[in-house]
Amino acid sequence: MVCTQGAQARLIVDAALPFDDNSEAYDFLYETMQAKKRIVGTRSIVGSRKQLVERTRSGTYATGGRLSMYMNPADLDAWLPRILGAAAAGDTFATAETVPSFQMLIDKVGGILRYDTCYVNRAIFRARGGPGEDEGDLVEMILEIMATSETAGESWPGSPPSISVAANRDPFLFGEGVLTVNSNTHAINDFVLVIDNHLQPRWANSLTPTEICPTNRTIILRTTNPYTTTNDTQLYDTASIDGLAGTLQFTNGTISTTFTFTGLQWGNQSPTVRGKREIPLYLDMYGRGKGGSADIEVTNDATV
Is 47 exposed, middle or buried (0-12, 13-18, 19+ CB in 10 A)? Predict the structure, then answer.
């Protein structure tokens, strides 16, 4: 019996074809990339409740999915321009009105599939404190990707790139993170940071999307905080309508990643007592531009 085992899967990315030893190889936690093909034409009335094969066609379809991996500075150097839009200026990554495309090749063991003209629709970073079977204390980066098409029957490059094991690819731990809002540092129990490009596919005289366009950008930072008297004053009972500056920084030795927000706004969500346990304060903070500054900027130092 032959098993198609996920442990044997491989994944590489490149800005353009062909894939070769200069492509980017990544280890990953899981992927859900797939083409969701459709058969249309089953609504016609034929004098019976049956449907006819001869009256159906292959319809338009969408391609995409999620790619999950550990967050580390070396990988972020490659992915931040695809998430935010702009190339790096030194260690600083800014936003742009467009986002660049890339190609992806995945060896799914039973077959090798290529995904063309991919874009990052949404990037999700998340982690939580404390041990657990699913390693939630390691910071996870989930990329929701849209592609124009999927091609089966591909070949793996003869000289493929290898997965880097350099020190700047060490994944960040949740405990290495520091949240600062309005110049005050706050303890957090967990966080989820979402950068959403709101991609919109266009099907124009084609079964596959002819364009995938960013239409908006939403940035959400969700945290669970201990409901202390300090947090009551500095977070819950604070007017954020004018937008407060903040950072979420992770540091591992000499390498670090800092997400900087110009104007964080949130609507207060009252804490509640849910039994004999610590009372949490939940915050849904939206990162928005203020005073001509960008809504988000990332400083990524991958130098060991």
Answer: exposed
